[in-house]
Amino acid sequence: MTDTQFSPTRRLILKGCGVIALAGLGVLRFGAMPAFAAANDKWPEEAFKQKAEADAIKALYGKTAEVSDKVKLDAPEIAENGAVVPISVTTTLTDVTSISFLVADNPSALAASYIIPAGTVPAVANRIKMAKTSNVTAIIEAGGKLYSASKEVKVTVGGCGG
Amino acid sequence: MASTIRVRATANGDTTEVQALIQHPMDSGYVKDAQGQIIPPHFIQQLIFECAGKNVFVADWGTAVSKDPYVKFAFKGGNKGDDLKVSWTDNKGQSDTLTAKIA
User: What is the CATH code of the structural domain delimited by B5-101?
Assistant: First the structure.
């Protein structure tokens, strides 16, 4: 992912907001602005740039997730085509504000992140790309806490090749 | 006039189920073309669903979302005949918008 794709003005505005949000913390990494990212409609650029799963979760939410059986991740055992892997998640948790999907062994772990406003059912189905066999993780933010579920999906043909 | 967005929203009791399909290459920036040149990243960053002036669903996407992305969700509060506005923007600043009626 190249930075040149993003307009400099937008970056400046994003960075400026991050700095303000974090002024009290003395940390000038604008990726670590979870409340800001979740509460706003800005695309979380920093989180999508992170390569490792843990870094992406940290950049997006600023905290770690605990595994919960209340998060139901539905993914295939084997995906024949890594370019189109149907993944969906549902939960019995209430007060859900955000749902994210991560693929640990993709070039960038974060695949998609959804903001769930009040009144929207906490369930999402989508299709993602997987470079190779990997763990897929769904993260659900509910009541300010993070819950996760993971599943290994075997990929026969990777979705990033060419 | 063909829109890149195809959306179906169905009201069922108090919840409205929404399925959307968008035509977009979603190039990740890792794939090479026939000449061995890297195809630069070109992907939808944000997809917003709006109903009655309120965001009901916001998707932030990275390059790992499949080509011609599909998404399904449901929300409460939509009524038959209401407008559901769908809009996306990608990393090249392109965008598209479609307003569908909830059936």
Answer: 2.60.40.10
